[in-house]
Design brief:
By secondary structure, this protein is of the alpha/beta class. It is built from ten helices and eleven strands. Strand 8 and strand 9 form a beta hairpin. Helix 1 (17-23) crosses helix 10. The mean pLDDT is 91.
């Protein structure tokens, strides 16, 4: 199969990180499927208002989709995640994999790339992963899977996710396995923490008082000197749990609902912004700037937390294209 004109559809699209990763490789997106209206608003800001959204993939009749070569989907992770309730395959959101398989079979799809949280690996003693792999095998695919960290693929974010690459069995090459991309050097965090918006975190802000209380709670009291913290340029602080965690040269995993990431710049605390969270997910600066001011920062932070990492998908997609070409 020629790789020059491969076409894909973006399922569980979110704000289009998977799409961006594949478009950087020259693939064409024919349509997308997303049920969150706020994510769809951001997606359209990035890719245009005329895009066709097929809506809830569980209700899609495959016959109503255009013919395409590759599926990209970051299927819902709430049910497999350590921070979710871990209901797994018993939760209807966990059944989205069956909706995706129905589309794969209905379109006789050649290839797919899927992404989920690392917690899927050991969820229910590994049973959820085993079921997913069995169902994909029954649907006619050879599946390769691996946990990769975004730190190794172009962004300074500690984001571990499981990736699945599926190849329809009649297209599998004998004695040829899919090879995962090799890690690259992590870029400097200061290239990403560049927002100049009014996000200074100082004594005039109520949020600063909250931070001071947090620093002085029973877990943190006496452990941190604010003057010393402020001397460390680009020190990243995570206030997500009762204890304060410090990071140098990287940021913790961006998550929906995590808005407590701070960092030091020019001797001041700053809050991580929506623009910066997009950059840390591999979105190009010109695209991230399109959303700034148009999409509320709290929404961007949340949507970036839900997104795939553009550069990781690009790296995985590149290896799949190399496999197809060989």
């Amino acid at each position: 199969m020629e790789t020059d004109n491969l076409k894909f559809v973006d399922f569980c699209a979110g704000i289009g990180a998977g799409r961006l990763g594949l478009q950087k490789l020259g693939l064409s997106c024919l349509a997308f499927s997303e049920i969150d209206k706020y994510a769809e608003t951001t997606y359209r800001e990035f890719f245009g208002q005329e895009e066709k959204n097929h809506g809830d993939l569980m209700k899609i009749d495959p016959k109503n989709l255009p013919d395409f070569d590759l599926m990209i989907a970051g299927f819902p992770c709430q049910t497999f995640s350590v921070i979710g309730q871990r209901k797994g395959m018993g939760d209807h959101r966990g059944q989205v994999i069956y909706g995706l398989i129905k589309i794969m079979k209905g379109k006789n799809l050649p290839y797919f790339i899927l992404e989920n949280v690392k917690g899927l690996v050991n969820h229910d003693g590994g049973n959820s992963l085993k079921i997913i792999l069995e169902e994909l095998d029954k649907a006619g695919y050879k599946v390769f899977y691996k946990v990769l960290s975004s730190l190794d693929y172009g962004v300074p974010q500690m984001r571990e996710r499981i990736y699945f690459v599926g190849i329809r069995k009649d297209l599998v090459k004998e004695n040829k396995n899919f090879e995962w991309p090799k890690p690259v050097k992590t870029p400097k965090v200061e290239y990403f923490l560049i927002d100049d918006g009014e996000l200074e975190f100082d004594e005039r802000k109520k949020s600063y008082e909250t931070f001071l209380k947090f620093i002085n709670n029973k877990y943190n009291k006496g452990q941190f000197d604010i003057k010393e913290l402020l001397k460390q340029e680009y020190l990243v602080l995570d206030t997500r749990q009762s204890d304060l965690r410090l990071y140098r040269g990287k940021v913790p995993t961006l998550r929906t609902g995590r808005h407590g990431v701070l960092y030091v710049r020019n001797g001041k605390f700053r809050k991580l912004s929506g623009l910066e969270s997009l950059l840390l997910q591999g979105f190009p600066k010109e695209l991230a700037e399109k959303a700034k001011g148009k999409i509320a920062d709290i929404n961007l932070l949340s949507q970036a937390g839900n997104a795939m990492t553009v550069s990781t998908i690009e790296a995985v997609g590149k290896r799949l294209l190399e496999y197809i070409k060989e």
